[in-house]
Design brief:
The protein has one domain. By secondary structure, it is of the alpha+beta class. The strands form 2 sheets. The chain has a 5-stranded antiparallel β-sheet, with helices on one face. Helix content is 25%, strand content 35%.
Length: 141
Amino acid sequence: MSRNKADGLTEGQLKAKGFYKLRKSGIAQAIVHYSGGNDDGGSEGITTIMEDGTTGEIKEHYLQGEYIVGKGYVTPNDYPEEVREEAHLADILVAPVYRLWGTFAGDFYVSGEVTWDTNTEKITVNQDYQEPNHSHQELDW
C-alpha cells in the first residue's frame, strides 16, 4: 500500500488540486528538490516562494497509524488539521517526481527540481544531472 494519497489522482486532478491548494495558501511557487538512482531516491525538500516574495518550506509528513509511548495508538485523523493539510499538499507536489522516476530503479543518477508556478499554472522539470542509459518523458500537464 502506498503512503502517497495523490497516487489515485490523474495528472489533471493533481494539477488542479495542487494549484488550488497553493493559491489558497498564498504560495506563488513551490519547488520540489529531488535526487536518486540505483534503487534509492526521492524528494529532498519543498521550498516555497510566497506571493509577497518571502520563502518558506512545506514539510513532508508520513501520517500513519502508529503506537506512541504515552499516547497509545494514534491514527492519521489524530494529527492536527494543519499537519494533515500540509501532508496532503506535499503528497501532491512530490507526485510528479515519482511519476517521472518511479522507484529510482536503474543504472542512473538524477537530481533536479520540479517547480509548480501558480502564475503560469505550469509544472516544469529542471534536471541537474543524469547518467546515460536512462530515458524519461517530460511532464506535459
